[in-house]
Amino acid sequence: MLDAIESLASGFALFDPDERLVICNSKFRFAFSLIENHIRRGAKLEDMTRRYAEANENLHGNAAAIDGFVSKCMQHYRNATGNLVYLAPDGLWYRMMDYRSQDGGGMVIHTGITESKNHEMQLLAAKDQADSAN
User: Fold this and answer.
1) pTM for this structure?
2) What CATH number is associated with residue 75?
3) What does the alpha-carbon distance between residue 45 and residue 61 come to, in Å, rounded to a whole number?
4) Burial class (CB in 10 A: 0-12, 13-18, 19+), 98
5) Residue 28 domain boundaries
6) CA–CA distances in Å: residue 114 to residues 25, 92, 95, 97, 111
7) Number of compact structural domains in the chain
8) pLDDT tens profile 40-58
9) What angle, 0 to 180 degrees and rounded to 10, lies between the N-to-C axes of helices 63-79 and 45-55?
10) Are the C-beta atoms of 49 and 74 separated by less than 8 Å?
11) Terminus-to-terminus CA distance in the chain, angstroms?
12) What is the pLDDT of residues 95-120, one digit of tens each?
């Protein structure tokens, strides 16, 4: 099974019904390298998310921003609602998709989208420039 999840193009993590990490691949670990020491079997998702938020310089150590980030991520995971797109401290963009399993656990698919996000921002800038020229 480890071979199969390691071969995925995206980061992958499986959590049990108590939101504890069961298994993840190296791409997931890479995306969260700021907290790699805390990504281990049995770690609670909310604890890992909080540690990531606290280490994330984009949140500037702002307690309200950190709490908001954690709350948004956990709500997204628990409700498995669509995509969550965010900018990582290293300037890379990611899309997280959460899925629930029948046993109450969940899966996180974590995909790098920097290239498409940069293209999107270029298109928006070009549109804004065209709009202001009119």
Assistant:
1) 0.84
2) 3.30.450.20
3) 20
4) buried
5) 2-133
6) 20, 5, 9, 16, 9
7) 1
8) 999 999 999 999 999 887 7
9) 140
10) yes
11) 57
12) 999 999 999 999 999 999 999 998 88
